[in-house]
Amino acid sequence: MTSAPRVTTIDSHQHFWRLSRGDYGWLDDSVKPLVRDFMPEDLEPLLRRAGIDRTVLVQAAATEAETEFLLDIAARTPFVAGVVGWLDMDSDGFPERLAHHRANPHLVGLRPMLQGLDDDAFILRPRVLDNLRRVADTGLAFDILTFPRHLPHVAEALERVPGLRAVVDHLSKPSIASGALDPWRADIAAIAAFPNVCCKVSGMVTEAKADWALADLEPYVDHVAACFGADRLLFGSDWPVATLAASYGEVAHAARVLLGRRFGVDDMAKVFGGNAARFYGLAV
To answer: Does residue 240 have a cis peptide bond before it, meaning omega lies within 30 degrees of 0?
Structure first.
């Protein structure tokens, strides 16, 4: 009997950083266990143990130097399938910088750090919307890093840039610790109504209580599974940020168990690899 071909598994969301670069303003004593270097040699054995083949490396600093740092890592790290970088989306120089970095085959997406900006409606600024249209024209992906309060602004931006291919990071960070589902539940459903938008099943454990259990995460996973379906969900570890609350293996296990209650083998292969490869255009 011929066995089915092995499907490439992909972690759609992980980070690296080197502190000496000096542009990680959010790395302070509030997240003290993270205030050290995290590089490919730290992650590689964890991937092997969890059965993950490739990753998407996502920016963790709001500088163009960060994008260049990550692209350099991708060029020499076989398991990194692509990079989601950062460019200044509210800059007149954005088109030139986009064209410059778009030439690098490792760049598969862009992410402004919307969650940390003073202006909750940043994504609706005229120049940002113009630049989002440029991103849409290139076919690059757009990662949406938000808290639930940002989602109505994001929905309006998606309405105004209909060609944008986007993915919601970390379920938009609902308050899992409190168990609150609303208004996140309706707002995430509104985002899911855009057929070109996906959602990463990632970042949950750091939004949960310190003594979290699978049951705490389940209502949130069930909701995005119902809204987005098996074709528009991507597994992501959010390593090493997730290590504040869980090991890499625990994060992967939680996602496999909770999603495995809803989806069969073929759909799980999509969530744990196929969808990320298609969405980001990865050569895997």
So the answer is: yes
Whole-model pTM: value is 0.96
What are the residue boundaries of the structural domains of the chain, listed by start? 10-280
DSSP, residue by residue, 177-219:
TTT--TTHHHHHHHHHTSTTEEEEE-S-GGGS-TT--HHHHHH
Q: b or e along 191-214 (b: 16 or more beta carbons within 10 Å of the residue's beta carbon)?
A: bbebeebbbbbbbbbbbbeeebee
CATH superfamily of 10-280: Metal-dependent hydrolases (3.20.20.140)
User: What is the pLDDT tens value at each position of the chain, 284 positions in all?
Assistant: 555 567 899 999 999 999 999 999 999 999 999 999 999 999 999 999 999 999 999 999 999 999 999 999 999 999 999 999 999 999 999 999 999 999 999 999 999 999 999 999 999 999 999 999 999 999 999 999 999 999 999 999 999 999 999 999 999 999 999 999 999 999 999 999 999 999 999 999 999 999 999 999 999 999 999 999 999 999 999 999 999 999 999 999 999 999 999 999 999 999 999 999 999 999 87
From residue 50, alpha-carbon distances to 9, 167, 248 in Å are: 10, 24, 8
Distance CA 135, CA 65 (A): 19
Compute, in degrees rounded to 10, the torsion defined by CA atoms 202, 208, 214, 218: -70
Token pair recorded at residue 88: 């200044």
Three-state SS for 261? coil
Identify which of 133, 72, 122 has the alpha carbon closest to the alpha carbon of residue 98.
Answer: 133
Q: For residue 126, say if its preceding peptide bond is cis, omega within 30 degrees of 0.
A: no
